[in-house]
Amino acid sequence: MPIEILMPALSPTMTEGNLAKWLKKEGDEVHSGDVLAEIETDKATMEVEAVDDGKIGKILVPEGAQGIKVNAPIAVLLGEDEDASALEKFAASVAQPAPTAPSPSPENLRPAAAVPPPVKDRGNGDGRVFASPLARRMAQQAGLDLAAIRGSGPQGRIVKSDIEAALSAGRVTPVATAAPAPVLSQPVPGAPILSKERVAALAGNPPYTERPLTAMRRVIARRLTESKQTVPHFYLTVDCEIDALLKIRGELNAKLTPTLPSPVGRGGKGGGISVNDFVIRAAALALRQVPAANASWSEDAILLWDTVDIAVAVALDDGLITPIVKMADRKGLAAIANETRDLVARARAGKLKLDEFQGGTFSISNLGMYGVREFAAVINPPHGGILAVGAGEPRPVVKGGTLTVATVMSCTLSCDHRAVDGAIGAQFLAAFKKLVEDPLTMLL
Under DSSP, is residue 8 helix (H, G, I), strand (E, B) or coil? Predict the structure, then answer.
């Protein structure tokens, strides 16, 4: 029986995607792991790999198609010893109405213990169950326990047909799942729907030009609305003198410039290690010193993260993305500079992998390169905080009772008050300020 290739869910927020390019054509042989196509998600362009062996029998969705729903068929794969005639039978079987689910009865609701035990050669003795990625995804969506399903694939591997058989039999015990996550953006009760006609009318109907909403822009709007509606923000600001930091940065870059070219997308100013790299390093070390600030809220408990993974906001043509510097507290300035440069370049090219921009434990947003003196950023859930970094600029300061001029950078911490109290946020900023103003301590 031919196998449907479905539009995959490549991120937790993805509901639809665009088929940018087919890398295989009809009639091509494919093997598990081969790259079939490039899919544009709300965040990046990602590759889709085959999970079964076979031959591309028919491409259902052409290149350039947009708005394809997740789990919608995009192509059909012919198995071994199947030819084009199998597609006609496949189309006929798809056209038949789906069978009605059997009504509950003692027979189809018997406990999982009554299911025949899985074959022994499905695993390697360590408790793992062998299953294709598609079968795992189908089982997860249906809430099925893979350990209770007998696989019919090679060496007892569970495949798509096994999941379908288990669903039609109705006799596999569902896996206990957590309560579903809330919808990210429910309209405020009683609030008017802001159609473009209504917005234009409210503005007095001036002439305007439309810019269509992209998937990324819709996700940004949804998540920021959720954040401001559900996360109790509070803000703390500190001024950091960065003359010593700029001096050490210049000395380091004089030595490292041959191995660290000018950072991508930073206005072409400077080279090697940027001020933002120092900020990432200082924030990571401050989170290590004040672990209560490296936290996220859940309804069951406050989660204190064991690693410090810094998400760095990067501006794109139609939004922003937050690539992650993982374990930033364990990396030196040169390593952070190299990694952020690579992440920024690939983010702007739409080539980040999913695990490179999904997750993190804390965020940094730096608008100093645009001359912004101070701002308050919106928290990116589930992070407990985000640090907004302004421009370093000459300002009058008092030192030892004498008025002088220093280069000062204002940084504002937005905290989720459910997880990070005011005293904890203040302790974090105090540790951060000390590191920034005494940058040699970051090199130890």
Answer: coil
Sign of CA dihedral 24, 27, 29, 32: positive
Contacts of 341 (CB under 8 A, 6+ apart): 260, 261, 263, 264
The residues that are catalytic are 417
Q: What angle do CA 297, 298, 302 make, to 5 degrees?
A: 55
CA distance 395 to 239: 11
DSSP state of 324: E
Structure tokens at 258: 């041959």
Residues 13-44: b if buried by 16+ CB within 10 A, e if exposed: bbeebbbbebebeeeeebeeeeebbbbbbbbb
Residue-wise pLDDT tens digits, 348-405: 888 888 889 888 999 999 999 999 999 999 999 999 999 999 999 999 999 989 999 9
State the DSSP string of 338-383. HHHHHHHHHHHTT---GGGTS--SEEEEE-GGGT-----PPP-TT-
Query: Whose CA is closest to 185, among 67, 300, 13?
Result: 13
pLDDT tens digit sequence for 79-138: 776 767 667 666 554 444 444 444 444 344 343 433 344 434 444 444 567 777 677 767
Looking up tokens 């003692």 gives 106
Determine contact, residues 343/323, Cβ cutoff 8 Å.
yes
Q: Rounded to whole angstroms, how far apart are CA atoms 377 and 370? A: 15
Per DSSP, 413 falls in state E
pLDDT band for position 46 (cuts 50, 70, 90): confident
Phi and psi for 425 in degrees, rounded to 5?
-60, -40
Asked if pLDDT for residue 259 goes beyond 60, the answer is no
- Exposed (0-12), middle (13-18) or buried (19+): which is 440, by Cβ within 10 Å? exposed
Taken in order 65, 68, 70, 76, the sign of the CA dihedral is negative
**Contact, 130 vs 154, CB < 8 A?**
no
Beta bridge partners of 387: 364, 413
SS3 37: strand
CA dihedral 27, 33, 37, 40 (to 10 degrees): 160
Q: Which domains does the chain have, with CATH numbers?
A: 1-97 (2.40.50.100), 104-177 (4.10.320.10), 217-443 (3.30.559.10)
